[in-house]
Amino acid sequence: MNRFLFLTIDGLSKGAIFAAFALALVLIHRATRIVNFSQGAMAVASAYVAYSVTGATGNYWIGLVAAVVSGLLIGALIERGVMRFVSHTAPLNAVIVALGVVLVIQAILGFIYSNEYLPADAPFSTIPFVVGGLPIISPFDIFVFCLIGAVVVFLTLLFTRTAVGLRLRASAFAPEVSRLLGVNVARMRTLGWALAAAVGALAAMLVIPTELGLNPGAMDLVFVSAFTAAVVGGLDSPSGAVIGGLGVGLLLSYVAGYSPYGDVSQIAIIVMLLLVLLIKPSGLFSGVTARRV
């Protein structure tokens, strides 16, 4: 029972980060109808900016703000400089270009910082509190839960309670009608990419300190887990992304903790993704899709 409780809390902590990253994927998909396979590389680029700023100032919090701001700028730059010119007549076009963006970003980061792992410290201790001889939750886990909760609330209010959120959704689902109503669709798409990149940067800042360190490919496996979470929840459902992220985190934790065959958690993620795609490709928490004739 003690082991189960520890694995549950650890899984929820990781799942919260996957949920934030999945939210970034959902944001771009809702704003542009594109699955951004370069999200992980963009997040790592922002984490490197934070690494440089933190090293220059000695202040983690300034580095965290720099990561979020650089995420906004990187997202806007890639949308305006690259993705805007991609034809959306075939979904594969955007996928291929996004994978090309990954290669370019990772090559630039490797050239500037090398491909070796760099230390990435957490702002709070990652050693869990011990209650009754059982490690429960660490100060860093509490920080993760609070920060991700604030992001979820902010995005929920943005999309449901503001005119900007309404314009973002309208630009994605009915761009021609939105233009006729005076909405600057191009600007809304840029904003969607910027917001998604900022959320992805925040997720990278939370997950990298718990891994081996900072590396150009540090978010590759995280992207796989977050993409699975987004697909499980539904690429149009922010709440589904959160639930999917928590579910993926729990699955990874339980499989790693109980599997007699070693760490096969990544295989479990792939199996989970395949099952959802076979049973309900639109996601378990997606809405009803209108039939097209």
Model description:
- The longest helix is centred in the N-terminal third of the chain and has 31 residues, at 2-32.
- The chain has helices spanning 2-32, 39-57, 60-81, 91-113, 139-161, 163-173, 175-180, 185-207, 220-233, 238-258, 265-279, and strands spanning 130-131, 134-135.
- It has one domain: ABC transporter involved in vitamin B12 uptake, BtuC (Orthogonal Bundle), CATH 1.10.3470.
- The chain is mainly alpha-helical.
- The chain has eleven helices and two strands; from the N terminus they run H-H-H-H-E-E-H-H-H-H-H-H-H.
- A two-stranded antiparallel sheet has the order 1-2.
Q: Give the SSE string.
A: HHHHEEHHHHHHH
Q: Give the end-to-end Cα distance, rounded to a whole number of Å.
A: 54 Å
Q: Supply Rg.
A: 19 Å
Averaged pLDDT? 85
> What is the structural class?
mainly alpha
Number of domains: 1
Summarize this entry quickly.
The protein is mostly helical and 293 residues long. It has helices at 2-32, 39-57, 60-81, 91-113, 139-161, 163-173, 175-180, 185-207, 220-233, 238-258, 265-279; strands at 130-131, 134-135.
Observed structural traits:
mainly alpha; ABC transporter involved in vitamin B12 uptake, BtuC; 2 strands; 11 helices; 293 residues; 71% helix
Fold blueprint:
Blueprint: H1 2-32, H2 39-57, H3 60-81, H4 91-113, E1 130-131, E2 134-135, H5 139-161, H6 163-173, H7 175-180, H8 185-207, H9 220-233, H10 238-258, H11 265-279
Antiparallel strand pairs: 1-2
Helix pairs in contact: 1-5, 1-6, 1-8, 1-9, 1-10, 2-3, 2-4, 2-8, 3-8, 5-6, 6-8, 9-10, 9-11, 10-11
